Amino acid sequence: MHTLFTRFTAFYGSNPLHLLGTIAAWALAGYVVTLLGAQALWNTKVWWQSIAVWFLAAIIAHDLVLFPLYALADRSVTSALAAVRGRRKGPSPRVSPLNYVRVPTLATGLSLLLFFPGIIRQGQSSYFAATGQNQQPFFGRWLLLVGTLYGVSALAYAARLAFCGRRGEATAAS
Amino acid sequence: MTPSSPERQPSRESAEADRRDDSRSPDAADEAVYGFPAPVWRALERHRPPGMGLLQRWRSPLRGPWLTSVFGSVLLVGLPVVILTGLLSYIAYGPQFGQAIPADVGWLKLPTFDWPSRPSWLYRVTQGLHVGLGLIIIPVVLAKLWSVIPRLFAWPPLRSIAQLVERLSLLMLVGGILFELATGLLNIQYDYIFGFSFYTAHYFAAWVFIAGFVIHVLIKLPKMINGLHSLSVRSVLRTSRADTGPEPPDVDGLVAADPAPATMSRRGALALLGGGALFVAVLTAGQTLGGFTRRAALLLPRGRSRGEGPNDFEVNRTAAAAAITSAETGTNWRLTLTRHGESGQLLLDRAALEAMPQHTAELPIACVEGWSTTQTWSGVRLRDLAALAGLSTPARANVRSLERFGGFNHAVLQANQVGNPDALLALRVNGVDLSMDHGYPARIIVPALPGVHTTKWVRSIEFGQP
C-alpha cells in the first residue's frame, strides 16, 4: 500500500487527495456551466459583454495590466527619489519621502478603483432611475478626498522632518 | 507549489530549526523532482522564453511565505463570511416562490427555509456585511495577489501533472474573486456596463469561486500554517525598517533572490494594509449604518443627503422610472384584496384604509446593494387585511404594484412575514403621507424583508390558503 502511494505520488506529483479534490472542484465548476448554459457565457451581439470574457478579462486586467502598472510606478518613484538623493549636494534629508508619496497615492488609487463609476459618471440613466439623483457631486468630492490625503501626508512629512531635524541638532550639540 | 507531504510536520522549536527543516524537507528536494512525463517537464524548463529572466527580478524583501500566510489567513476568515451572507441573500429572496434570481440553480444553494421576519434588522446586517466586508476585503485581496505574483511568472511553470491541474484551478480562484468583486462594485453603483444579468452572473460565478477557494484552502492550508509559524508576530512588530530583511529562501520562490533594501518594515506593510481596509470601511459603512455616518460614505450613491423632510430618505426606483402617473394614484385608486382561487374581491380606497386600525413601526429598508435606511412607518397591518379578506392565517400573500414593467413589480410574502405584527401596508412615513417616490398611496413594509420586495404603489394583494 505504501509503495502504491509513493509510486502514485511520484507519477502524479502530489498525493491522491490533491487529485480527487481538484477533480471535485472542476466537476462543480462544470455543473455551474451546465446550469447556466454554455450559450449564456457568450454574448453573440456584443462580445465584450459576455460572462466568459469578463471572467478571463478580470484575471488579465489584474495580473497583466494593473499589477505591472503599479509595480512600474512604484519602482520609478523609488529609483527617481534615490537618484535625486544621490545627486544632491550637501546633507540629504534624514527621512525618505517615499512612503509619504506611496500612502496617499495608494489610497487615491484604491478610492478610484472602487468608486470610479460615480467619479466618471458612468451609468447615469440607471443611477437616476434608481436614486432620483445624478452623479454630479462625486468627482468634486473625490478631488477633495485626494487633496486631503496628499495634504495630510505632506503635513506628516513636514512634521517628521522638523522632529528629526531638531533631534539631529540636539545630537550635534551634545 | 506542491503541498507538504503527510510526513512533513511543521517544526515549531524556532525559526532556525524551521530553516534547517526546510532545506531537508521533501519540498526542497522537489526542486529537482519531476512527475510523469519527466522529459516533457525537463524540456519545458530548458526552453525558457527570452525575457523571462527579466520577469524574475522581484526586489521586495517583504515577500515570503510568512507575509503570504498572514494575508491568506485574513482572507480565510473574511471570505467565508462574504460567501455565506451572499448565499443567505438568495434564500431571503424566497426561492420557494420562484422569486430568487437566478430561478434555477439546481443543488447550488443553501437548503431553503422561510426567511425570518425577526429581528427586523436581520437582512440589514447580513447584506450590509456582504457588501461592506466585500469592499473592505478588496485591499487584502490585492495584497495577497501582490505577494504571490512571482509564482505567476516562475519558470519552469510546471514539473508535474499535479502542478498543471492545480495551476488551472487557480483560474477559478483568481477569476472568481476578481469577477465577483468587479460585478459587485459596479452593481452597487448602478453601473450596468457589463451588459449581462448581474444576479445570474454574480450567483453562478460565486460557485465557481467557491470551488476554487475550497480546493485552494485544502491544498495550501498546511503551507499557510507553516508559513505563519516561520516568523513570530512579536519579532515582526519589533523590527524596524532598517532591520527588516528577507525571509529565508523558500521552495516556491516567493522570497526574492536578489532583494532590494527594505523601504518599509513588515509591521509598516501590515499597518498600510490595515489602514487601507479601514479607509474603505470608513467610505462604505455609512450607507448601512445611517445616521451621522452616512456622510462618510461620500463616494457611494447612498451617502448623499436628500434634505431634512420626512420623505427625504433614500429612494429605490423613482415613480418616474416606474412610469407611475398621478392619475393612477389619485382618487380613483383602489386596493384590491382577493383570496387565491376565489372570484370575490374587496375594493378599498385610501379613506377606507385610513379608517382601519393604524399601527406604527420603526423598520429598516435594507437593499441588496448593502445600503439601508430606518424610518417610522404607519399603516394597516397585513394580517388585518388578510382577516378582512377572510383568511386569519394566510399561507402567503401575493402583492402587485401599479408598475406594469420591471422584474420587481410583484412579490410573494411568506406566512411569517404577513403574520408579523409590524408587517404593514404603509400609508404614512414619519407622520406624513408617503411621497410618490416612496410608494404613495400605499407600500409594503415588512421586517427583515429585502428592500426590493417591499412593493411600492400597491395595486392588489392576493392572500393564499394555508
Could you characterize what this model shows?
- The complex is a heterodimer of chains A (174) and B (466).
- Chain A is an all-alpha fold and 174 residues long.
- Chain A is 79% helix and 0% strand.
- In chain A, helix 4 runs antiparallel to helix 6.
- Chain A is flat, with a radius of gyration of 27 Å.
- Chain A starts with a helix and ends with a helix.
- The model of chain A has no long low-confidence stretch (mean pLDDT 91).
- Chain B contains 15 helices and ten strands.
- A five-stranded mixed beta sheet of chain B has the order 2-1-10-5-6.
- In chain B, helix 5 packs across helix 10, helix 6 crosses helix 10 and helix 7 packs across helix 8.
- Chain B is elongated and about 85 Å long.
- The N and C termini of chain B lie far apart (57 Å).
- The interface between A and B is large, with 69 and 87 residues.
What's the topology here?
The complex is a heterodimer of chains A (about 170) and B (about 475).
Chain A: H1 2-12, H2 16-36, H3 51-87, H4 98-119, H5 124-131, H6 136-173
Chain B: H1 15-24, H2 26-30, H3 38-46, H4 65-92, H5 122-136, H6 138-152, H7 161-188, H8 198-229, H9 233-238, H10 266-284, H11 286-289, H12 326-329, E1 335-339, E2 345-348, H13 350-355, E3 359-366, E4 372-381, H14 382-388, E5 396-401, E6 410-414, H15 415-419, E7 424-429, E8 432-433, E9 443-445, E10 458-464
Parallel strand pairs in B: 1-10
Antiparallel strand pairs in B: 1-2, 3-4, 4-7, 5-6, 5-10, 7-8, 7-9
Helix pairs in contact in B: 4-5, 4-6, 4-8, 5-10, 6-10, 7-8
